[in-house]
Amino acid sequence: MKSKRSSGSAAKAPSSAARSAVTAPAKASCLPIERARLSDIVAARIRDYIVEHSLGEGDRLPTEHELTTLFGVSRGSLREATKALGFLGILRSAPKRGLTVGRVDMKRVTEYLGFHFSLNNYPRDQLLKTRLVIERGALEGVAEHMADDPVVYETLTSLNDRLNGLTDSDAFIRGDIAFHRALLEASGIEPLVAFGDLLGIFFLRFRQQVVESRATWSGGVRMHRELLNALRRGDLGKAERIMCEHMQVYREHARKDRPS
Ligand SMILES: [Zn+2]
Question: Which of 92, 170, 251, 256 has most Cβ atoms within 10 angstroms of its Cβ?
């Protein structure tokens, strides 16, 4: 990887001492930094730096002073950026160790991004398609795990059975979320669960409208059961068709219930 560039950056060329202290990332330091959202740009550059230098959890970053020189920004802007990255778990800051790479707090990221989706009235049909990709993508792993371990089927079935006698819509929504989350978990593909949580925050609001029509409740429980049975038989094609049909109820709402 080329790491040396001439100092044609909008930022003042760092002193030679500073340049030797930190290896300038290939792209991160050569774009002009504009005034607004400066801390967002700095945060993006720190992320680039981490990726370009293949830094992993616990690795140290250059000192604050080196980073301000590298990016040509004030200490205040740098601190704002590191605070934001710290919030998401990407960076850690300790008195003597300085800045190190952290572990992303997926729970926080999903909460934050899920909220973002809700606020922006992100097109529902697109979110729905995303959810279908995630939920369908999990099914193969679920079928494999079911074949290995009968407890997987039993656990999912008992979660679904709990939905049966419910009369309270909040409880039904929570139960349905728990069922779908457990399905993703049963795939053994962890990031799918995180992505599912991300969309789940959005769907929580969406679901509240859907479950107002009670007729969909018993239909949903029946589909869950058919889905589990298809997975247990290893009939992936059928399981995928059921999942599509199950999501159809949301699709109808997505069509007729566009945000004003
Ligand atoms: Zn469901």
Answer: 92
Q: How far is the CA of 23 from the centre of ligand 1 (A)?
A: 51
Ligand 1 centre from 145 Cα, in Å?
Answer: 20
| Ligand 1 centroid distance, CA of 155 (Å) | 15
243 Cα to the center of ligand 1, angstroms: 9
Q: How far is the CA of 139 from the centre of ligand 1 (A)?
A: 14
Token pair recorded at residue 138: 């999990």
Per-residue pLDDT of the chain (260 residues; tens, 9 = 90+): 344 333 333 333 333 333 333 444 444 444 445 544 788 899 999 998 998 888 888 999 999 999 999 999 999 999 999 998 998 888 998 888 899 999 877 777 777 776 776 667 777 788 888 899 999 999 999 999 999 999 999 999 999 999 988 888 888 888 998 999 999 999 999 888 888 887 877 777 677 666 666 677 888 999 999 999 999 999 999 999 999 999 887 777 666 544 43
Identify the structural domains of the chain with CATH numbers, from first to last: 16-101 (1.10.10.10), 108-256 (1.20.120.530)
